Task: inverse folding
């Protein structure tokens, strides 16, 4: 197809198509007889991908990394999302300040105090995003340190143990490499070394896998105070409080509501006091 057809199919102007070609984002074939560009369905798909990523405010460099498969799309999406959230926080502070200034007499505007207020808003927003980012890293590290699953068999010998590990890896699209066989095998899962053991419970066998070197799980740069806060927020205490709250709502009971309030409010106050101010 020619460039006019390509423009019609993608909604991208000829000028932009030429621009993307110059930036090496699009590589059309050329007719050997007349040297004219000939565009394919693959070029249509590539241009629609570029159009989507540009609407998401991706840079041309990042789009090139996606199209050339240098960096996984999910990796760039996580990075880009963090940048957008940071920009959103800054924009929100500007919106809030503009609202305040509209209600203030121009002659009475205190520029120094306004700048200080904007700095506080941005700093608080940055701290919040830092806490969220660290929590994601902490949660990923916790899962990386250890996990368990229930195999299809009772795992009565090393052969069944290996079969269960390979089945788990296949179901989760992970690469498995056995280092040591037996009833306490050692293996690599996506390059991370684990040791495993079999445990019996009321529902049968469970395989527990523990990271051999937990210090390499990826959260070493998070402060111990912040880690303690994350453990409390995601631990059983919060679950108990939520159960109390739902029982109070479901039963519409003053007694249950009182119990919920008795436990929840002091805990929430304590959590706020424990909120980490820095790393």
Result:
């Amino acid at each position: 197809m020619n460039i006019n057809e390509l423009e019609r199919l993608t909604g991208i102007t000829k000028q932009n198509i030429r621009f993307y070609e110059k930036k090496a984002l699009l590589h059309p074939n050329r007719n050997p007889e007349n040297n004219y560009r000939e565009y394919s369905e693959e070029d249509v798909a590539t241009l629609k991908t570029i159009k989507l990523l540009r609407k998401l405010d991706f840079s041309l460099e990042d789009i090139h990394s996606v199209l050339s498969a240098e960096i996984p799309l999910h990796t760039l999406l996580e990075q880009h999302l963090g940048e957008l959230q940071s920009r959103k926080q800054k924009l929100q502070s500007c919106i809030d300040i503009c609202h305040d200034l509209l209600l203030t007499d121009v002659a009475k505007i205190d520029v120094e105090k306004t700048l200080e207020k904007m700095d506080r808003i941005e700093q608080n927003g940055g701290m919040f995003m830092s806490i969220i980012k660290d929590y994601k890293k902490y949660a990923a590290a916790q899962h990386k340190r250890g996990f368990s699953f229930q195999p299809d068999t009772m795992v009565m010998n090393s052969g069944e143990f290996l079969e269960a590990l390979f089945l788990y890896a296949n179901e989760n699209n992970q690469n498995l490499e056995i280092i040591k066989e037996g009833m306490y095998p050692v293996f690599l899962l996506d390059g991370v070394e684990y040791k495993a053991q079999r445990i019996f419970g009321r529902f049968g066998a469970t395989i527990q896998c523990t990271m051999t070197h937990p210090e390499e799980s990826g959260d070493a740069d998070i402060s111990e105070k912040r880690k303690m806060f994350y453990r409390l927020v995601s631990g059983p205490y919060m679950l108990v409080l939520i159960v109390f709250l739902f029982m109070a709502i479901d039963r519409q009971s003053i007694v249950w509501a009182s119990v919920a309030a008795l436990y929840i409010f002091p805990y929430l106050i304590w959590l706020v006091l424990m909120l980490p101010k820095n790393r």
Q: What stands out?
A: The two ends are 56 Å apart (CA to CA).
